[in-house]
Amino acid sequence: MCYFPTRRQPLLCVYRTGVKWEIEFLAARWVKGTNTMAAQQNGSRSEPEGEFSFSAEPSLEHIRRLQAEFTAERDWSQFHQPRNLLLALVGEVGELAELFQWRGEVAEGLPDWSDADRERVSQELSDVCIYLVELAEKCRVDLPQAVLQKMELNRRKYPASKVHGSSKKYTEYTD
Ligand SMILES: [Mg+2]
């Protein structure tokens, strides 16, 4: 029995009940595909280096609600306790790591990767994100706000003026 249903499944299948978002997802895929085809005809990548950004939607809250709907429809909430979700998350990180295994250093943007391998990276990153969001929910962590607070802590822990260009851990710096 598979309690964790997102293995090798595209987001479109996972969220098939979210009709509005499914349509928007398809539209986004179509636009992306059109841009990719145009770029391929021009002999270039669709996203110039240094200009990548995420879409504004969906928010983490929307992803949380979609996943909650997905698990509730299948009566899987009984299996999605924090420990199980953590193990599932680690498993998905392993699946992501497997894609990078034995490749040596990989350049930003994965320029030498096939479209199929890029798609696998996209799917495994999505699995990681889905379980991370669900785990945060089950731990009652407001993830967007928690991330902002942690980034502020990181700024204080690693002042740019002090650590610029250095990879040392904060414990290695002296005042
Ligand atoms: Mg996976």
Automatic annotation (TrEMBL):
<comment type="subunit">
    <text>Homotetramer.</text>
</comment>
<comment type="function">
    <text>Hydrolyzes deoxynucleoside triphosphates (dNTPs) to the corresponding nucleoside monophosphates. Has a strong preference for dCTP and its analogs including 5-iodo-dCTP and 5-methyl-dCTP for which it may even have a higher efficiency. May protect DNA or RNA against the incorporation of these genotoxic nucleotide analogs through their catabolism.</text>
</comment>
<protein>
    <recommendedName>
        <fullName>dCTP pyrophosphatase 1</fullName>
        <ecNumber>3.6.1.12</ecNumber>
    </recommendedName>
</protein>
<dbReference type="InterPro" id="IPR052555">
    <property type="entry name" value="dCTP_Pyrophosphatase"/>
</dbReference>
<keyword id="KW-0378">Hydrolase</keyword>
<keyword id="KW-0963">Cytoplasm</keyword>
<dbReference type="Pfam" id="PF12643">
    <property type="entry name" value="MazG-like"/>
</dbReference>
<keyword id="KW-0460">Magnesium</keyword>
<dbReference type="InterPro" id="IPR025984">
    <property type="entry name" value="DCTPP"/>
</dbReference>
<keyword id="KW-0479">Metal-binding</keyword>
<dbReference type="GO" id="GO:0042262">
    <property type="term" value="P:DNA protection"/>
</dbReference>
<dbReference type="GO" id="GO:0006253">
    <property type="term" value="P:dCTP catabolic process"/>
</dbReference>
<dbReference type="GO" id="GO:0047840">
    <property type="term" value="F:dCTP diphosphatase activity"/>
</dbReference>
<dbReference type="GO" id="GO:0005829">
    <property type="term" value="C:cytosol"/>
</dbReference>
<dbReference type="GO" id="GO:0046872">
    <property type="term" value="F:metal ion binding"/>
</dbReference>
<keyword id="KW-0597">Phosphoprotein</keyword>
<dbReference type="GO" id="GO:0042802">
    <property type="term" value="F:identical protein binding"/>
</dbReference>
